[in-house]
Amino acid sequence: MALEEYKRKRRFEETPEPPPKVATKAGNRFVVQMHDATRLHYDFRLEMEGVLKSWAVPRGPSLDPADKRLAMQVEDHPVSYFDFEGNIPENNYGAGTVIVWDVGTWQPLSPVAVQGKYVPGTEAEAAAMLAKGDLKFRLNGKRLQGDFALVKMKGRRPGSKGNEWLMIKKHDDQAVEGYDIESIDTSVLSGRTLEQVAGDAGSAEWKSRPAGRGRLKAAWLADAVARVEKKKQEITTEGTEKHRGKTKRKTSVSPVASVVKAVSSAAESSSGPVKRSMPAKIHPMLAEALEKAFDGAEWLFEIKWDGYRAIAFIDGGKVRLVSRNQNDLTPRYPELKDMAQFIQAKTAILDGEVVALDEEGKASFSLMQQRTGFRPGGKRATANADVPVLYYAFDLLYLDGYDWRRVPLEDRKQKLASLVVAGDVVRFSDHYAEHGKALFEMARQKGLEGIVAKKRASFYEERRSREWLKIKIRHRSECVIGGYTEPEGSRAHFGSLVLGLYDKKARLIHVGQAGSGFDQNSLDEIWKVLKKLETKKNPFFGEVEALRQVSWVKPELVAEIEFAEWTDGTSEGSGPKLRAPVFLGLRDDKDPKECLLEDARV
Predict the structure, then answer these.
(1) Under a CB-based contact definition with an 8 Å cutoff, are residues 445 and 451 in contact?
(2) Which of 198, 428, 473, 571 is 20 to 30 A from 159 in CA distance terms?
(3) Could you give the residue numbers annotated as active site?
(4) What stretch(es) of the chain map to CATH 2.40.50.140?
């Protein structure tokens, strides 16, 4: 990665970070910087080829060989970044506080061992190992010492950027079993903590700092807020000037606004929270789909998080996470067991989304797939526990003996924001009033999945409701896998997945084939599952249009599919088809019977 990428991401008139400049003198230093940005992480950098080769390590390097730390390779940094400590202002890339956690020297280890031991290597060997994706090296730092390896993950998932590595400590005299990086939180250069560098020495320990009463925004999200607020101010100013001039503004109602108004019902009057025992089961409120974004004074707009929906039951310091189809998710995400410590309540029920964030703080479905692995039929398969997740809470349903479901949404969210202590485990999903179009445009520019519009006065209904509307940017659909086609050329196992959706009569209608989006690992894993589900019975109703021979499987798997648009069937009796479908991953949080053609075509 060249320094052009480093330069492109930064506005040097606003950030104290050093400008891009490739060093002419070779060096062999390394630095680990503790970076409290969107989420706390550690930046590991090796001086090499005139720059600092850089990786973001969410949970930090470890001296325990049993810890395989996820390391996301990021853009090269200039060598002058080596001793950078300070605050990157809001609205800038990587906004947050940085301290130097460790410094020292490093040397490459030859990939050819001598008598079973690694020996020092050359710069040429280091460059070759880096290109190959298996870099072995020795650190001599103030805190990190001994032999390590950075290994690029070969099983690249659909949608992945291909920058996922693992940082692994080798077994040697410097290995420390049970190493706890969180016990050391000061700079090796200044001795200061993150809070002291940030000018907030009196605040709570960094691991649980409140950060704005539950609101913790990434730089890209802060940009969005600024744009939305600016838009709101412009509209307010325009309206005030026209009023002063006694100019009556002719109101035109767009077709989308008409639809929204027609399908939205007035909320009933609220009597406030109701005292009752804590419900044992909640079916999440679901949003109807809408194609176009809109503005509206009676609406709140939120980011649509690209993860897994989960209801969080908090009782006596314990957390239970339940999926939308009532599966227990608690064992799957052990790091979320501490969530109760960051919710100021004895008992509570929250609605939210379990997400995996990329280095820019955006929810990544690809990373989520890497974390969960393929789990068809509820069975555990390959998963990567080194991909961290957190819980974005966006609704409050129950609190300390009182049911909040018949309280207007705006009041529920206001109360929820006061309860959440934001950090690396849980965050409050904020909302933006009135201006959905501006938020939608920001989401489009940032490559997000979309937004959700919710009526301010809406109550929580355990069903799909048009009081909530989801507006997606990229077309996506969860489809049922009913078969696979024969492979061609050098392709192994299968050519494409044969997809379907259920119609109003509960008949599985063929909607196309997805033959792209796979790598060799996903082909291997999905093939193993498909073979177990093979059947001679065709699960589809009506014609199945395929150019190659189809083998049928029981319709028990749900695939996440991204596509360009819907097209009409090519023959009489043929259903609509997905244009240019791409496989993103398998989903086990949806029942195949929930994959409805009527909902998908909105």
Answers:
(1) no
(2) 428
(3) 304
(4) 476-600
CATH code 3.30.470.30 region(s) in the chain: 231-241+281-472
Half-sphere exposure of 87 (CA within 13 A, CB side): 11
Give the model confidence (pLDDT) of 321-360 as tens digits: 999 889 899 998 988 988 998 999 999 999 999 998 877 7
Angle between helices 219-244 and 436-445 (to 10 degrees): 150
> Structure pTM?
0.51
- Cα atoms found within 13 Å of the Cα of residue 491, Cβ hemisphere only: 17
3-state helix vs strand vs coil in the chain, percent to 5 = 20, 35, 45
- Pairing mode, if any, of strands 274-275 and 402-403? antiparallel
How far apart are alpha carbons 75 and 161 in whole angstroms?
13
Which residues, 6+ apart, have CB-to-CB distance to 396 below 8 Å?
A: 348, 349, 350, 351, 404, 412, 413, 415, 416, 419
SS3 12: coil
Contact residues for 129 (Cβ-Cβ < 8 A; gap 6+): 108, 111, 121, 135, 136
Report, as an integer, the average pLDDT of 438-455: 88
In tens, the pLDDT along 291-326 reads 889 999 999 999 998 889 999 999 988 999 999 889
Mean pLDDT of 248-259: 42
CATH of 231-241+281-472, one of 3.20.20.150, 2.40.10.220, 3.30.450.20, 3.30.470.30: 3.30.470.30
Rounded to 5 degrees, what are φ and ψ at 6? -60, -45
CATH class of the 476-600 domain in this structure:
mainly beta
DSSP code per residue over 217-237: --HHHHHHHHHHHHHHHHHHH
d(CA 583, CA 581): 7
Rounded Cα gap, residues 481 and 501, in angstroms:
9
Q: How far is CA 286 from CA 115, 147, 535, in A?
A: 62, 51, 33
Give exposure, 352-379, as e/b (b: 16+ Cβ within 10 Å).
Answer: bbbbbbebbbbbbbbbbbbbbbbbbeee
